[in-house]
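Q: What structure does this chain adopt?
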Amino acid sequence: MRLIYLSIFIFISTISVAARQSVDSILLKLDEVIENRQTYYDEKYKTIEELRMKLSKADDQDQLLLYDINKALFDEYGSFIYDSAFYYANQMLNIACKSNNQEMISVSKMKMSFVLLSSGMFHEALDTLNTIIPDELSDLKKVEYFDLKARAYYDMTEYANDPYFAPIYNKKGNEFTRKAIQYGDPESYQKWASIALYNLRRNQLDSALFFYRKVLNDFDVSLHQKAMVYAAMAVCSLETGDTVTAVSYYAESAINDIKSVVTETIALRNLANILFYQGKVKEAHKYIVLANKDAGFYGARQRSFQISGVLPIIEGEKLGLIENQKKQLEFYVIILALLSLLIIFSLVVIFKQLTGLKKARATIIEANNNLKSLNDTLKEANKIKEEYIAYYFNISTNYVDKLEHLKESISRNLENKRYSNIDQSLSKLSIKKERDQLFHNFDKIFLSIFPDFVDGFNALFEEENRVYLSENGAMNTDLRIFALIRMGIFENEKIARILNFSINTIYSYKNRIKKRSLVPNNEFEERIMEIKSV
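A:
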């Protein structure tokens, strides 16, 4: 019996090691594809540029040709960039309406519904689909129509994720999947994919896996179709508790998504989630960051929302923060214990030395006042720090995005030898406009922290010397100089650099303002510092 158990143990261990090696291998392959993803993007942009050139040269009177080219552009953008996909779907619909071709109108509406679904606009997608009369469609288009309706309700099921609405949406999705199966061509992969999906949604996992494998083995499916099939197979594996196989399937799905340049995807997100709970934080972080970037690039709102809840790096930082707080709490307990002993000792001393009670009480009151003043100062400093750190990261992100966009634009123009467009791209940058926007944001954040600053400032002057905000709520130079001083920036050099003035100009401004005030020059800045924050 011991020999049998040992054999079984060795067999299971061998399978486990082989499975881990297989997972490591597919993840390594995924990393290589991610490393080369720009190559696939370049091919995508090249195809799009060729179609755009074709569209620009097309005869405006040839409506059918215009429709076909716009449809081809939509197919390129459909799962790539929401805004562009929506634009070309709308162009298709406009052309179809001009031609009064009902089939083209229906197809255009289905394309628009697809991109609305991909961006998370479920109700808008359903409203668009409900304007289509399915009886007027061919069997092939009926399959596409009912698939879209099914997907809408399935996506709503995942998004709602509650015990009341989710089963209702899932049931409706199953009804439309059955209709898609009814009209599907047995010689087409779509019919069998719908059958597999129908079994998956009813939790018949073995049947679902059987039909998904049939799709992969019996039909010549595209990379994007493979990605969807592998993602569905991963769900089947997860439901059975086979996370190892699920990781492999999600990795395969992600590989095919990247190769087909699909940014509206769930594979990387779900893969990262599994790896995170397996303790592979480094890999999970890499994939979830890329998934978040793709969701933002596409404009998939529900994907971004779902990703925001599973970012393993955030969870890791939270665990680190809890650990630090625990250590701080232990430190504070020790400090409190020591303080308690000190207080007891002080009380004994005070009790024995009644003659020193008045002096000790005065000392305590003074200390409390100092602590309160210090506490108020710290609160104000923390408020300023929080607001301006958020402001710094926000504006830095905006500038990085602008520089990245400019770099990509210049690179494309250099690659396509459109040198004149480089000047146009550079001319769009306005330093004055950026500086004005910088001042506008500074004014807005500062006045949110110090809403009474202008009134407090003006209280130091006669009526004729007072200054006020502009119509759009902006501060003038006088106010900005002393706003910076109120924030703790006293050096003329720093103020001059921030406001883009010379040091002498700042010095002159300060002297001129102080001379007009009602208080002595040497007290003016102290009065400014007394203006309270919120």
